[in-house]
Amino acid sequence: MPQFIVNMYNNSYSGGFRRNNNQQGQSRNFSGQQNRGRFNNNRGRFNKNRGRGFSKSKIDRSLYIKRAEEFVNIEDTQTVNSFSDFNFQPKLLANVMAKGYVKPTQIQDQVIPHIMNGRDVLGLANTGTGKTAAFALPLINKIINNPSERMIVIAPTRELAQQIKQDFRSFTPGLRVYLALVIGGAYLREQITNVKRGPNVIIGTPGRIMDLGRRGVIDFRTLNTVVLDEVDRMLDMGFINDIKSIVDQTPRTRQTLFFSATIDRKVEPLIDMFLTDPVKISVKTTDASSHVEQNIVRVARYAKEQKLHELVGLSDFKKVLVFGSTRMIVEKLSGSLRQKGFRVQGLHGGKRQNQRQRIVRDFRENRVSILVATDVAARGLDIADITHVINYDEPNNYQEYIHRIGRTGRIDNKGYALTFVE
Known about the structure:
The protein is an alpha/beta fold. It has two domains: about 5-70 and about 290-420, Rossmann fold; about 75-280, P-loop containing nucleotide triphosphate hydrolases (Rossmann fold, 3-Layer(aba) Sandwich). The chain has helices spanning about 90-100, 105-115, 130-145, 160-170, 190-195, 205-215, 230-235, 240-250, 270-275, 305-310, 325-340, 355-365, 400-405; strands spanning about 5, 15-20, 25-30, 35, 120-125, 150-155, 180, 200-205, 225-230, 255-260, 280, 290-300, 320-325, 345, 370-375, 390, 415-420. α6 packs across α8.
C-alpha cells in the first residue's frame, strides 16, 4: 500500500491525501509525529494497550488507511430496466418519480422483476446500494393490487427498522398502504393497537416481534411475505432462534426475501431452511466505504479527548459522527463537547426509544452537528450529509468498522473517516 502524507496540522486540515515521495517511506499522521516505514517501523506490530479493559486491536490497522475511489454516478452504471419497465401501478410510479429517482440502482434493476414475479430472493448487497427500495417498491405494488396482503420485515436494530419504515412511507403518499413499527424501547400498548388494526406491513426487530407473537397480537400464519434484512448482523446479535421461530410459524407458501452483506457458514443453513428455489442476486461490486477517505490519528489515550475537541472544531468537520465503545464514554464525550459550546447529542442503547428518535431527527435536521454514539448507529442511520466519521474507540471487528464508516460518503458525497490509535 502506498504511503500518504496527510496535511493537517498547523491548525488546519485539508481533508485530502498527498503522495509521499520520500524514498525512506516517511510519513506524518494526524498527531504531527514523524513515522518511518509502516506504522513507526514496527513491521505491522503495535504495542499492547496498558490498563484494565484495554487490549491489542483485533484489526490490522493498515486497513484503516485507504484513499476514496472515484465516483461512479448512478446515471453511469449499467442497468437493463427503467422504473417504467417494472409495470408499477401509476400512482406508485408517480411517487417514485416525485422522489427524483432517475434510474434504478443495480440491485433494484436486478431484484425488482423477480419479486414482482413472486420468486424467493437471496440478495447480497452492501449498505447504501438502494436495497430497501429494491424490496419496498415491488411489495407496495403487491399491496396495491391486493389490499389483503400481509407482510413482515425483520431488521437487526431499532434504527434500521425505523429507517425501513420511513423508506416505505416515502413511496406511499396517497396510497392505502398501512404500516406498523414494532421495536423494543417504545410504547408497547401503542404498538399492540397499531398491529391490531391490521397493517399491510409489520416492520420490526426480532425480540419485540416474538413478544407480540407470544401475546397473540401478531398471527404469523397470516403473513404471506417475509423479508429478512441484514441477516448476518441479526446472527451476530444472537437472534438466530427468534428468526427461526418466527419464520417457522409463517405459511410454507410464503414469499421470502433474504438480504445479507455476507454469506458464511452461519448464514448458509438459513438459506436452505427459509428459501424455496431462490434467485441469487449479488451486487457487491464495490465496498460501502469506497467513497470514504480513511486514515488514522495517532494519539495517546490521555490526549484522545483533547484531540477530538480539536478535530471537530475545524471548519471542514461540518457534520460529524463519533463512535465510542460504551455508553459511559458516549455520555462523557457528549458532555465535554457540550461544555465547549458544540451542538452535540449522545446516542446509545440506554436511552428511551423516543429520546433516540428525537436525537437522530435533530442530527438529520442539523439542529446538532455532532452525534456521539455506540454501535447502535453503525447500521440503519441513513443521513446523506455526514461529512466525517471518527472512531474514537476502535471497533471490535473489520465488518463493524465498514458499517461505521459507511455512514459517510453516501449517495454522491465524498466522506472522511478517522480512527484513533495509540
